[in-house]
Amino acid sequence: MKEMKKILQIVKWMVKIMIMQKILKKFMEFVRNPIDRLISGYMHLCYYGYTENDHYCFGCNKNFTCFVNMLEKRLWQIINNEPSPFKIGKELGYSYHFYPQTWHCDYYKNQHIYTYIKYDSSDKDSFTKNIAKALKKSNISNDTITFITKKIYEIRTQHVTISKNATTSYKNILYNNPLLLQKICSIYYYDFIKFGFDLPKECKN
């Protein structure tokens, strides 16, 4: 009897594992060019602020160079298992926006079960086609795929930053500062490599 119970328990666990494997094979993760992602997050949370009185700038008062230096420092603190520099709550949540994408979702354990789709706000056609392709491969109905792809074009987030003049200005400032750009490339190096984004020429030397 005990042996039968053990066998049934093993069978149950095998079924659970098989179900999870089937589900996990259909997971998707959206990835973005590391520099575009950093600047977008910076503009949204620091420059414009989450709210009018809630700016997340690492105490740098909208100084982008200071922000990048503090980000690098705090990421090293995490890597070295030093006491958390983050306050519990908003600051901890906001910081997640700036972690390398290869730190997300146990990437190094689960990278083989994800379909990675590049997001580029200036090329929604390719983004939408890749989503539709991945959904179809997972046997999602055509009606559902049509609904999702339609919503991608219709919905626009309130904090979208890509089209704002200040965003372009900060991007120009960055690309005119090779040392700062190289530091950012160093922070997000594995994001560039693992997800197939081109490193800026300033970072290839």
Automatic annotation (TrEMBL):
Q: Which InterPro entries match?
A: Chst-1-like, Sulfotransferase
* Single biological process term from Gene Ontology: chondroitin sulfate proteoglycan biosynthetic process
**For this protein, what is any one GO molecular function term?**
chondroitin 4-sulfotransferase activity
A single Gene Ontology CC term: membrane
Q: Name the domain of life.
A: Eukaryota
Q: Where are the transmembrane segments?
A: none
The record's section on Pfam families has:
Sulfotransfer_2 (PF03567)
Record's protein name: Zn_Tnp_IS91 domain-containing protein
Supply the source organism's classification. Eukaryota, Metazoa, Ecdysozoa, Nematoda, Chromadorea
